[in-house]
Amino acid sequence: MVAKKTSILAVDDEPRLLRMMELILKANDCQVITAKTGEEALAVFDITTPDLVLLDLKLPSMDGYSVCRRIREFSHVPIVVVTAIGDNGNKVKLLEAGADDYITKPFPAEELVARVRAVSRRAQHSTANHQMSGFQSKDMTIDFAKHQVMVGDHEIKLTTVEYRIIAYLAINAGKICTSNDIIEAVWGDDYIGDGHILRVNITRLRNKLGDNGKNPKYIQSRIGLGYMITKD
C-alpha cells in the first residue's frame, strides 16, 4: 500500500515565497494546496481538509491571527505560522491564538521541512497515545475521539494547546508530569525551559474548567516538580 502524502495548505500573499514553499514541500513528498488571502484559505480549507496549515501572519484583509482563530473554532489541524523577524515578540500571542509552532522569515528549506515534520509528528503522536476512549476525574470527562472536554453537562471550549495539555495530563493521570515533559509533548523540544508559556495556558485552562488555583479540583500543582491530574 502506498503511504498517503501529507497534504499542506500553504497561505501567503507573496507569490515568490508561496511558490518556494510549494516547491520545497513537494520535493519532500507532500501534497500542497495554496491560497493568497485569509478568506481564500478558509474556503480552500473547507473543501480540502488538509493535514497541516502553513500560514503567513501578515495577510491582507484577514490576518494570520484571525485565520488561525477561525480554523480553531472547528478543527484541531496543526498550524505553523510564518512570521517576519520583527514578529518574534508575538510568540505567546501566536500560540494562544491556536498555532502549534512558528517559523521566522527568511528560513532555509531544511528548517521549513523540519518544522513541518516535527509538528506533524507531535500531532500523530498525540492521536496515537489516546488509546483510552475517555477519561473522568470527578465531574470532568474527556472524550479523546471527539477532542471534547465536559464539566458536568457543559462542554468546555478549549484551544488546541489547552486541549493537548489536559489530554497529556489525563493520559498520565496519577503521575507528576514535569513542566518540561508537558512543554515537549505540546510544543516540542524548541520550547523546553519556557515555563511562561505553560503557566499562561495552565491558568487559562483552570479558569475555563472553573478550577481554583489555590485549591484545585482537577489540575494539581506540585511545586518545583510539575502538574498532575488524579484518577477517579
End-to-end Cα distance: 42 Å
The whole-angstrom Rg is 18 Å
Give the SSE order as H and E letters. EHEHEHEHEHEEEEHEHHEE
Helix content: 40-55%
> How many strands in all?
12
Oligomer kind: single chain
Output the strand order for the largest sheet: 2-1-3-4-5
Which term fits the overall shape? elongated
Give a brief outline of the structure.
The protein is of the alpha/beta class and 232 residues long. It has eight helices and twelve strands.
Overall description:
With 232 residues, the protein is of the alpha/beta class. 41% of the residues lie in helices and 22% in strands. The strands form three sheets. The chain has a five-stranded parallel beta sheet with strand order 2-1-3-4-5, with helices on both faces. The protein has a four-stranded antiparallel beta sheet with strand order 6-7-8-9, covered by helices on one side. It has a three-stranded antiparallel beta sheet with strand order 10-12-11. Helix 4 links the parallel strand 4 and strand 5. Helix 2 runs parallel beside helix 3 and helix 6 crosses helix 8. The N and C termini lie far apart (42 Å). The mean pLDDT is 85.
SSE inventory with pairings:
Layout lengths: L5 E6 L3 H13 L2 E6 L2 H11 L3 E5 L7 H9 L6 E5 L7 H6 L4 E4 L4 H21 L4 E4 L2 E4 L4 E4 L2 E3 L3 H12 L5 E2 H8 L8 H15 L9 E4 L3 E4 L3
Helix pairs in contact: 2-3, 6-8
